[in-house]
Design a protein that fits this description.
Length: 273
């Protein structure tokens, strides 16, 4: 009897530790692996990815990626501070890199590690289009979607080794990590985000891009361009994990005024497009 009671208390303790409210989604997220373990691993994977790919530096496109990335990051931090979550991203180490690749792709790892492929730039077209993609990708990271698409078993496995893996990194754990976060070299095993995660990332992304000073309606135009690509002979990788759809475009059009209203609370009065 005594044993059962202490076990129950112990389990309750674990539940409290593992569950936290996500400030962007307002949902309870179960994090079996804490950020303190996930992030060092993400940073290591990110550096490895950069060392294995050609990072574009000093060009106007590379500077645009950094510039837009900084604005999106600052928008996320201002939003959190205004909503009582100052310091929420204290473990983030924002980084924004443009990588030379024909792939139409972009992603953000936990901890704010972003990669944009040169192949997506003809579709993003301009700064505001890039802000739409980066806002969306950062939103996936902020809403912990990567962690949520790992199975409980994978999370436990990862949690058991994360402390050491951060420094060494076995092939097996890299695989789990890459699968969850959808890294470039493992496109074959990449899992698509669920429809609800896509919707969430669209919504949060619009608010971020608006606070960053970009017209959120550009996001709808971006997804229309994506959809046009999808109907082509070689649909972009990006669409295998982020399928475009008429519903998505309609949602974005409906939410754009609300995102602008939110941004006005932060003193943003004009929206670049
Ligand atoms: Zn997405």
């Amino acid at each position: 009897m005594k044993f059962k009671k202490s076990l129950a208390i112990l389990l309750m303790g674990i539940f409290v530790v593992a569950c936290s409210t996500n400030p962007f989604t307002g949902k309870q997220t179960l994090a079996l692996v804490p950020n303190s373990q996930i992030l060092p691993m993400a940073f290591q994977q990110y550096n490895e990815f950069l060392s294995e790919n050609k990072v574009v530096k000093g060009t106007s496109d590379a500077n645009m990626v950094k510039n837009v990335g900084q604005k999106i990051a600052s928008a996320a931090e201002r939003y959190l501070t205004a909503n009582g979550y100052a310091g929420y991203l204290t473990d983030y180490r924002w980084e924004y890199n443009l990588v030379q690749s024909p792939d139409v792709n972009a992603w953000c790892m936990p901890g704010g590690k972003i990669v944009v492929y040169t192949g997506i730039l003809p579709i993003t077209k301009d700064e505001a289009g890039l802000a739409a993609v980066m806002g969306h990708e950062v939103a996936h990271a902020l809403a912990n979607h990567g962690q949520q698409r790992m199975s409980a078993g994978q999370l436990q496995q990862l949690g058991a080794v994360a402390g050491n893996v951060a420094l060494s990194g076995s092939a097996e754990n890299q695989q789990i990590f890459n699968t969850a976060y959808g890294l470039g070299s493992n496109l074959g095993v990449m899992l698509p985000f669920s429809r609800s995660h896509e919707t969430e990332a669209d919504h949060i992304g619009l608010i971020l891009m608006a606070i960053a000073g970009y017209d959120p309606i550009v996001s709808a135009e971006l997804w229309q361009r994506m959809q046009a690509q999808e109907n082509g002979s070689a649909p972009p990788e990006f669409l295998s994990t982020h399928p475009s759809s008429t519903t998505r475009i309609q949602n974005i059009q409906a939410w754009a005024p609300e995102a602008k209203a939110e941004a006005r609370k932060f003193g943003v009065t004009s929206f670049k497009r």
